[in-house]
Amino acid sequence: MQLFQQSEATAAQRRLFFHAVDATDGLTAETGLTGAGRISKNGAATAATSANISEIDSTNMPGRYYIEFTAAELDTLGIIEFRFKAAACAEVAARGQVVPFDPYDATRLGLTALPNAAAAANGGLATVDASNAVKVQSGTGANQVSLSSGLVTLAGVTHTGAVIPTVSSVTAIASGGIGSGAIASAELNNIADAVLKRDWTAVTGEAARSALNALRFLRNKWTNSGGTLTVRKEDDTASAWTATVTTTAGNPVSEIDPA
After folding, report:
1. Of 66, 74, 8, 5, residue with least CA distance to 39
2. Going by C-beta distance under 8 Å and a sequence separation of 6 or more, which residues neighbour residue 63?
3. pLDDT band at residue 173, thresholds of 50, 70 and 90?
4. Lowest mean pLDDT among 72-81, 85-94, 157-166, 250-259
5. Which of 68, 78, 194, 250 is least surrounded by Cβ atoms within 10 Å, i.e. has the fewest?
6. Would you list the domain boundaries of the chain?
7. How many CB atoms lie within 10 A of CB 147?
8. In the chain, what is the straight-line distance between the N-terminal and C-terminal CA atoms, in Å?
9. Backbone dihedral angles phi then psi of residue 166, each to the nearest 5 degrees
10. Helix/strand/coil for 89
């Protein structure tokens, strides 16, 4: 069965071919026929064709004809029935099918949902651009995720490469957001190991009464001069924190009061 794209724009692709034989013996190819036929769009009432039939080659291909439909005659999806009858020839019945895709499109049959030629280098996957952008939204502001023009955007962080970028604007995890057992024991150990092995020289912005400052007293240089205890940072020069040292008779140091 011949396929026609709905409302086909190219005239040569609207041709339905058929063979006409003699009305008496039903076998001899009939030549020189002219006139219009009748069509029915998917079972609807019949109508005369807008064009007359055309003979292909009466000498080398006798009996072979085609009817060239108009775009309007192919505007209805489904079966299109064609009938032609002349006194000299037997009744001709031919059938085509009007479809919503382009049978002549070698790449994707004209279907926008299938990859086009430009996607061949991308493993057959369609290229995401401004024409087929997708946006998925689960909220606004920091909760919004969008895919547009080939870019992935998460709360203002735009990513175009193969490596996931640093995310700097993500909503804080709510209280109770990490339940018991949510992180595997092995990963908890990895976190603990990383804390213990962290090079203190890379840490900045620590609070005065932080665990880091407490540990500095055990590992870094400290001095006691003029009643002031000074605990140094990792360079053993800069002051990390100070404390007032109080002494009493019989007990060289009776109190240390951190600043």
Report:
1. 74
2. 19, 20, 21, 29, 30, 31
3. confident
4. 157-166
5. 250
6. 2-99, 130-159, 206-258
7. 13
8. 94
9. -70, 130
10. strand
Distance CA 198, CA 158 (A): 30
Helices (H) and strands (E) in the chain, counts: 2, 15
Q: Report the alpha-carbon distance of residue 248 to residue 246 in Å, rounded.
A: 7
pTM: 0.46
AA identity, residue 178: I
229 pLDDT exceeds 60?
Answer: yes
Would you say 29 and 70 are in contact if contact means Cβ atoms under 8 Å apart?
no
The token duo for 96 is 């085509």
**What is the DSSP code (8-state) at residue 167?**
P
Check: CB of residue 83 under 8 Å from CB of residue 66: no
E-strand stretches of the chain? 2-5, 15-19, 36-41, 47-52, 54-57, 61-68, 78-84, 92-99, 145-148, 151-154, 157-159, 222-225, 228-232, 239-248, 251-258
Q: Which residues share a beta bridge with 84?
A: 92
Reading the block at residue 53, the tokens are: 């039939």
